[in-house]
Design goal:
The protein is mainly alpha-helical. The protein folds into 2 domains: 60 residues; 156 residues. It is elongated.
Length: 235
């Protein structure tokens, strides 16, 4: 016996009732459940669809699908950070390393000859941070709206558009220049050659990291999801 299209839809509804909201994970579970039910029918054709489903669901233990969701989330997060590392690494290869060095040199020259260097550095850092939080907020709002409209949501998609757990890293990174500038303000840290070089490298590096997370990663994620799920609607 084979499952009907209507029964497959019931399996999707079943996974959603048990708090699996991501379509990619729902599809994976439906495939496992369907195979298990069909194997049971080979051994005992008298089983009803519901009886066979209950037997399969019990195999997931007292926590149901929650352990699998957590395990899948960890795996997706690892995939996400591998993509982050790969794309950041591209900026240390030709020709992007030349672009990065150009931006560092340009900012170095600007900082070298302007007053109020501390304010400029902090202003640039805060501007980048605002852009990152705005991008994350925009995508989170879009995902939230799609959930309310009961559209399909992919786990990897949500991880990507919420920047993983990287927002905390950005908050930590911006504390570094704040602490350095405040602790060296009396000795005019940025009036030294070392201070200006450090500031130029740090600000540009911060901006590159932000660009990768908010522009490059989502673009690559769309291609990844579309390959795995051809029905994925690129947003």
């Amino acid at each position: 016996m084979k499952l009907t299209a209507q029964q497959i839809e019931k399996l999707y509804a079943f996974t959603k009732q048990h708090y699996v909201e991501y379509y990619d994970l729902q599809t994976e579970l439906v495939d496992h459940l369907a195979n298990g039910i069909e194997l049971q029918w080979q051994e005992n054709p008298k089983l009803t669809f519901r009886e066979a489903l209950d037997i399969e669901f019990k195999k997931y233990g007292i926590f149901g699908f929650s352990d699998l969701v957590e395990e899948r989330q960890k795996a997706m997060s690892k995939t996400y950070y591998k993509l982050v590392f790969r794309l950041v690494k591209q900026y240390f290869t030709f020709p992007r390393i030349m672009q990065t060095l150009f931006f560092i040199l340009t900012l170095y020259m600007v900082l070298k000859f302007i007053p109020y260097k501390e304010n400029v550095v902090l202003g640039l850092m805060i501007s980048v941070l605002i852009f990152v939080f705005y991008s994350s907020f925009k995508w989170r709002r879009l995902i939230s709206r799609r959930k309310k409209e009961k559209q399909k949501i992919w786990m990897y998609e949500e991880i990507v558009y919420s920047c993983g757990s990287s927002l905390g890293i950005f908050q930590l990174m911006i504390q570094i220049p704040i602490q350095i500038l405040s602790s060296h303000r009396s000795s005019s840290f940025l009036s030294t050659e070392t201070g200006v070089i450090f500031a130029a490298i740090f600000v540009v590096g911060f901006a590159v990291f932000a660009y990768v997370l908010t522009i490059e990663i989502p673009k690559n994620a769309k291609e990844y999801i579309a390959k795995v799920h051809p029905e994925y609607k690129i947003i």
